[in-house]
Amino acid sequence: MSKLSKRDLILNSIIKAYLDENAPIGSSELGSRMDVSMPASTIRVYFKKLSDEGAITQLHISGGRIPTVNAMRHYWADVFGDIDFNQELLDINDEMMLKILSDKHEVYTMVYAQFEQNLIEILNVKNRFLVLNFTKDEIVLKYDTRVEKFLQNIGEVSLDKLELICSQVGLSELRSKIRELKRAKILFQENEIFAYKMFEDERFKMILEPSFATHMSDGLNFDPIFESQYLGLKLRVKFSGETSTMICAGSVYNDYIKLLKQIREAA
């Protein structure tokens, strides 16, 4: 890792102090917290530079500084930039501890079992029902000759892709059944109230569904999915021995490294 400049060192120290204390910090106090010796006068010079850049701000004229939303977004992008999110990062065996930590860190958390599977067979049951057999599950629909022909023409397709197609062409019954199937895969869900705080309108219902995760990339997510002051993490985990996906979402000012560390330690 390359050596940090004084500017980056001071900014990172401000961010870490804010994540620890959730309070503004002044130049003298910051100097006492830093691992390297730096006079308060030098720190004040960089405070001015960072303020001019829009990286830190003052809530009150006589108060200390806090990082801006933009600074926090850059910070988390750097922190999570080198992590391989294709591997299982956490082994979660204590559901109660996950609930406690989600509450403590004020994040919305959902864990769901894997639902990546393909449509492999369509059965017509006496022109009364259509049975859609997927790799692991099945969905039963009322028979409709147009739906049958449409699905036969699509051929083998993933569950996620089929849900998207249903939204595009108006197959509301099938789309609803797919969402029910995915909802049944939810293993853990906590702090729906924080989901509402992030959107404050009907959109918050989306994040309560596993289908929401199909719009997220693995790892760190910002806009357009989340407003600028929020972020989401999509992680592969082992939950009670089952390969799963965990979604964590909340303010950019939450300490996600501490959260993940405490979840790992609880295992």
TrEMBL record:
Keywords: Repressor, Stress response, Transcription, Transcription regulation. Coiled coil: none annotated. It comes from the Bacteria. SUPFAM superfamilies: Winged helix' DNA-binding domain (SSF46785). InterPro entries: HrcA, WH-like_DNA-bd_sf, WH_DNA-bd_sf. This is Heat-inducible transcription repressor HrcA. The lineage of its organism: Bacteria, Pseudomonadati, Campylobacterota, Epsilonproteobacteria, Campylobacterales. The gene is hrcA.
